[in-house]
Request: fold
Amino acid sequence: MNGAAILSTQGLSKTFGGFVANRNVSVDFPRGKLTAIIGPNGAGKSTFFNMISGGLKPSSGEILFEGNSVVGVMQHHFAKIGISKSFQITNLFRDLTVLENVRVAVQAIHCRFDLWSPRNRHHEWVDKAEELLRLVGLQARLRDRADRLAHGEQRSLEIAVALASDPKLLLLDEPTAGMSPEETRTIMDLIVKLLEHRTIGLVEHKMKLVMGVSDNIIVLHHGELLAQGTPDEIRSNDEVRRVYLGKARH
Amino acid sequence: MDISLTLIAQQLVAGVSLGSIYVLVGVGLSLIFGLLTIVNFAHGALFMVGAYVGTYVFLKTGNFWLCLVAVPLATGFIGLVAERLLIRPLYGRGPDYPLLLTFGLAYVLMDVVRMLFGVQGERFDTPEALQGAVDIGVGMFPLYRLVLIAFTAALMLALWLFIEKTRFGLIIRAGARDAQVLRVLGIDVSRVWLAIFGLGSALAGLAGLLAAPMRGVSPEMGIPVLVEAFVITVVGGMGSLGGAIAAGLLLGIVVSMTTLFQPEMAELSMFALMALTLIVKPQGLFGRKGLLS
Amino acid sequence: MSGQRSAFFRTGADWAARHRAAATTLVLALFPLIFPFHTLAINILLFGLFAAGYNLTFGYTGKLSFGHAAFFGGGAYGCGILIANYDVHWALAIAGGILLGGLIALVIGLLATRTRGIYFAMITLALAQCVYFVFFHAASLTGGDNGLRGVNVVRVELGPLQINLLNPLAKYYFMLGLVGVAVWALARILRSPFGAVLEAVRENEGRARACGVNIEATRLLSLVISGMVCALAGALNAINLSTVAIDSLSYQTSGLAMMLTLLGGMGTFFGPFVGSAVFLGIEHIVTGYTERWQLIVGIVFIVLVLFFPKGIWGTILQRYAK
Reply:
């Protein structure tokens, strides 16, 4: 446990019926750093991510965000607390425009139940949405419907929507999935840039990427913590090499 | 009020016989929901059609046992045709459409029955062999209702065996968890669903036939049944066979006991039970939490 | 079509799209001038409002409810009882009806919105039947099976203006005034930030939740608003017929709201009124010939669901968008 960690888990576990997805995972996300979570398929990365972003209730264990427990907190509070996650499988408001996708996410943080004022009169939300879309490179697609976008653009929109709540901890679940090498490079540059203002958690399969940009790496295997440390420490960890790095490099 | 234990015991048995009808209705709906995720709004209408088919067959043949075979076949057949022609085109469009369609289907079935049999209801006399009463230790009790309890119990046992012990039953159980599983195994999911819809419809019709001697028949008799089936499914848990049986019996007993103490509140007690379930355990007695998400 | 004419059309259509409430009210105001059956026109108006309220829940929030008769009937009885039994002023009685409808929606909502998906339809049906049962048995207050009589409002005084409700055309415009207010409020709500949240929740509930939207509270609020609009329609209907039938709480009435919305085009603003006009118009004609009206309703339902899920107005809008 670490005073400099924005989020810590202690003994976090999740069981589905008879299947143990995560067992006793205790890890830290150092503030202001990029922590990557790696592990073979089925290692429990997405389940873990879901738990710390409020999408799943842990079976046991503790999650501390800025010193406070967030276990049992309702999912819709997480965005307001400062934790936001982008989805592994693109999960957008398909029939709404690109702009509206982000605008409504910005709005959700800033107002509770406003039934009366015309929504577009709140320029600040539109401006913020446009700013975020510029950041991810979608400024030319504002009026297009989300489901008309190319796959790579949709992944970028995913990130913009996750950013709308101005999170202190941004969790990205395989943001570059299905992207070409140039698109991947653009996204990784964006992630490094975003790191200037927040802590980032990243689930990724592409090892080279992960090793290059991360400050901290968590390795999961069969739902349990295998190792945690800097890229160098992980690279030289025998167990990790055997289980994961020993396999074909991505 | 002087309420003897005898009276309570009698009401309990009455509750179980009432519950038997509820069980048959609830199981049919629950099966269809559990696998197809369709709430069949024509379920009450099929109940009613079963009662009318039974009335017609009994009129023509005087043979109640023949009715027991003919009715589920008839309503099961209607269910098969409905699923194939009307509901199948809607798969993939979202859960609301089959619901709306079966709602319209219920209207159609009711008016067709009115056209064939008239708008007035009629009586359905208990078949001679099952008339009379029997001493069950706490008093005289109608033979028909005892037979009803026994028959339902036997049918549920047969259904349970079918689901637990046969290959098709295994498919049903696997499919209730996840339709994808079936596809991956190469099983024709659409055929399974067709069969289930037919089975659920058959059970509904059978329930209608068995209820007829107790309630009479009328084109509107299915309307309260639909609500009762929903209450049972909510209380028992969607897609849970054991839940439907437990909830059906529970409901029958609750309604029966309420009739003893406060007859006007009998119907309300059903809703109270549902409201209580929604507050305390929204997924139902035997329901799985995941079904609500 | 000449360039000038199509440009005119397009400007008109754009204006209508941006001022949905005004356009709808305008069409409804002109309606009785071209449609000579004024009594039927009032029914179309009131049931159009009923459907518009239902549309908020079904078309805009995306939840299929089978219990909206409880709100409509609640509003009708609320208003009717106050007028018939307690001689309350019509404006207060209507307000009372709206409040009662909203209250019923709140209770049903608290029980039903904690669940998701298909459950909602089943629970709303059962709870609405419960409301039916309660009103049926409170016969001293509601008249029970015989319905409530004596909801007599013959003359309405609005300052210097005196409106004679025995004249169907006058009654129509009086009610249109209130319907217009409700339509305007609905348009306002749909254009507000809350309206945006409703769209987002309908599109992708999971994502909305992850973005910080309290889904249950949103649904509950939407249902209460919907309930109040339907209650207004019910209250006006009580005044219109001078009676309230126990049938207004039945599931057939819920089915009617569904039908009108589906027929007209769910999720469209003007659709409910289109559905009301077409349905009630056809009913008026067909019931002159046959008693088998439910058969026709059922078949229309099935055909709509299978082939025209967008409804009449919805299909027209879709063509226009191209």
Notes: Residues 44 and 222 of chain B are 4 Å apart (CA to CA). The interface with chain C takes residues 33, 37, 39, 86, 89-90, 93, 95-97, 99-101, 103-112, 114-115, 223-224, 226-227, 230-231, 233-234, 238, 264, 267-268, 271, 274-275, 278-279, 282, 292-293 of chain B (CB under 8 Å). Chain B has a mean pLDDT of 85. DSSP finds eleven helices and two strands in chain B.
